[in-house]
Design goal:
Strand content: 15-25%
Distance between the termini: 30 Å
Structural class: alpha/beta
Radius of gyration: 20 Å
Number of strands: 9
Keywords: Signal
Length: 282
Amino acid sequence: MRLPVPVARVATASALAAALAVPAVGAVGAAPAVAASKKSTITLSGSTSVFPLASALTKKYSTLNSKVSFRVAQGGSDKGITDASKGRVSIGNSSRDPRADDPKGLNFYKIAKDAVCLITNPSNKLANGLTQKQVQDIFSGKIRSWSEVPGAQQTGTISLQARNEASGTLDAFENLFMGGDSLSSTAARLGSNGLIQAAVKRDPAAIGFVSIEFLGGVSAATYQGVACTTGNAKSGAYKGTRSFWMVTKGAPKGETARFINWIRTSSAARRIVVAQKAVPLK
C-alpha cells in the first residue's frame, strides 16, 4: 500500500485566502477584480477524471475574468503532479491523494469529491451488485469467469479493464476497493476514463472502474449494497469515494491563486461542481 503524505502539505481554505494574501470572493459567482494588465495564461495538466470539471470551471471563470486564459491538458494524475513540480504548468490536476513519495514543495488544494464506479456492459447488469471481496477476487484474477459471480448475465471469461500506473483513479481503486490485493497482470491498462468506458461499452464480458462522470452507455454496479450516485457519495453511504485536487509548486500566486480560491469559495463554482456530478466541499 502507498503511504499517505503528511497532513501539513494539504492546504486549507484559510491558508489559501490568508497566507497567500488572496482576497476571498465577495459577490456570489463573481471573480475577484484584477488590475489592468496583460492577459495571463493559466496552464493545467493531469487527471482525466478531473479534466471535465476543470474544463467547465475554466470556461466559466474565463467569462468572469477577461484577463485570464487557460490551456487544459490531460495525461493522468502523476503527470499533472510531475508537471506542477517541474514548473511546466501552473496547476496539476490530481484525482489521488498526496503521497509521501511525491516531489517536495507541492501544495495540494482539495476542490471536490468524486465517486469511483464499477462498470459492466449493459448486457451484463449485475443483479446482486458486488461486495468488496468479489471486487478483490475479480480484479486480482482469483475469479476468472462470470459464471462464478451471482447475478451476472454473462457466463464467459471476465475481461478486466484497468488504468495505467500514471492514473489517480487506479491509485484510488487500489486503496478503496482492493484491500491490499494486487491487480491481475491480465488486466488491460488504459490511459483514460473514456477509454475504459468505451472498452466496457463494446465488450459484453468486460468490467472496469471509472469516475462517475463516465457512466454513459455502461451499467454501474452497486457496491456493498449501495448504488454509485453523487447523493450516496455525498452522504458517505457509498464507500468508493475519493478527492479531487489542484496541485501547485509552492504557494500559488496572482491569477492562479485567485482562480483556485474562486473554485473553493464561490457559489458559481459550486454549481459547476454539482452539474459535473462531483461532490462540492460544502
